[in-house]
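Researcher: Let's do a round of design. I'm pasting the structure tokens now; please hold your answer until I've finished.
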């Protein structure tokens, strides 16, 4: 079988992004040749440092190369300046727009040997809802009033529910191949507040229901939950969730909240997904408090590399990375300081590479 070559853009960005993205590259390079995968890497610029050097946080060249030459990318982190800086805005937000990366996917998983193991993925719509940022403020006799538009479309709701269904099926396939899990059947939970917002969230809910009623999802269980009671259950009974699909704002809040269930931001990966393209991105930021010490946890990035591979249809390669990371965590001997250990980034990376 001819090897498939994947061209991956590497965007370390700022702070510990520069420490963890090279680890992501190394784990991809270390995948066994029997998987029939080859990688080519392109170093790309974005972030606050890039902005200070060039005046652009996201150079046009970075976007053009990602669009025209790459199959996927790994994005580290960008530091957010403490005060608004004229002309600077987040390059990852811009990238999601320019590449139409409409889904933000965040798996939250503990080791299966934990006392109360959890294994869920939050699928957040990434293009609309209150994030269309159409706000205005006006004066009234009683003082100022501010308003924001919440936009929900059938198209965006349908495609996010569809990808959630696909993720549920893929997770089931990975489970059936023998990966340990707490779930037996695929389940998608639609999250909304349609009891109050009957038109916007109502449209999200009915469209998601319709998309998931497609015969290809006949083996996927579908339930729905109002977002506030969902938060309660997420913290009381997180093991109940497999795939959660939500409009942008609820998804944003749920995914940060769920990340708190597994201990360290250094463990949680994400992917920004569009048609045939995915950017893996650790959930943490640039962590200026620990940068330069060689102690940042690389696992969020290694898992993000695996997640990117899942969306490029390389599930077997992804499963290898997940298993190597889980084995490191389960043994618990070489852990970085955020997990209570004393290992340096390099030691954690080497331990995981050895397990591949
Ligand atoms: P930014 O503005 O870039 O988001 P931040 O100050 O909010 O930076 P985060 O990166 O969001 O910092 O991290 C929050 C906390 O979690 C920090 O104390 C940081 O050290 C810790 N942390 C984040 N990522 C990691 C990691 N990979 N390994 C270890 N600790 C981490
Ligand atoms: Mg932060």
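Researcher: That's everything. Go ahead.
Model: Designed sequence:
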């Amino acid at each position: 079988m001819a090897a498939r070559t994947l061209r991956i853009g590497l965007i370390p960005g700022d702070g510990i992004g520069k420490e963890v993205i090279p680890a992501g590259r190394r784990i991809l390079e270390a995948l066994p040749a029997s998987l029939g995968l080859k990688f080519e890497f392109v170093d790309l610029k974005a972030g606050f440092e890039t902005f200070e050097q060039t005046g652009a946080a996201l150079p046009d060249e970075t976007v053009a190369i990602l669009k025209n030459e790459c199959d996927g990318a790994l994005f580290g982190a960008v530091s957010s300046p403490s005060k608004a800086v004229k002309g600077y805005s987040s390059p990852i937000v811009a990238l999601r727009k320019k590449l139409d990366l409409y889904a933000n996917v965040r798996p939250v998983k503990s080791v299966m040997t934990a006392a109360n193991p959890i294994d869920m993925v939050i699928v957040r719509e990434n293009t609309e809802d209150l994030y269309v940022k159409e706000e205005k403020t006006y004066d009234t006799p009683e003082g100022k009033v501010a308003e924001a538009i919440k936009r929900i479309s059938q198209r965006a709701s349908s495609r996010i529910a569809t990808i959630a269904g696909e993720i549920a099926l893929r997770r089931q396939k990975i489970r059936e191949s023998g990966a340990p899990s707490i779930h037996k059947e695929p389940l998608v939970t639609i999250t909304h507040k349609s009891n109050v917002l009957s038109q916007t969230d109502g449209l999200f809910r009915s469209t998601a229901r319709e998309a998931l009623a497609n015969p290809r999802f006949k083996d996927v269980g579908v339930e729905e939950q109002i977002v506030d009671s969902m938060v309660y259950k997420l913290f009381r009974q997180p093991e109940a969730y497999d795939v959660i699909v939500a409009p942008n704002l609820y998804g944003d809040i749920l995914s940060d909240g769920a990340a708190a269930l597994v201990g360290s931001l250094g463990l949680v990966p994400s992917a920004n997904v569009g048609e045939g393209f995915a950017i893996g991105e650790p959930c943490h930021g640039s962590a200026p408090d620990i940068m330069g010490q060689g102690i940042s946890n690389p696992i969020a990035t290694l898992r993000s590399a695996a997640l990117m591979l899942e969306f490029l249809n390389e599930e077997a390669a992804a499963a290898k990375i997940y298993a190597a990371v889980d084995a490191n965590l389960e043994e618990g001997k070489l852990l970085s300081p955020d997990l209570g250990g004393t290992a340096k980034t390099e030691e954690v990376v080497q331990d995981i590479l050895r397990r591949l």
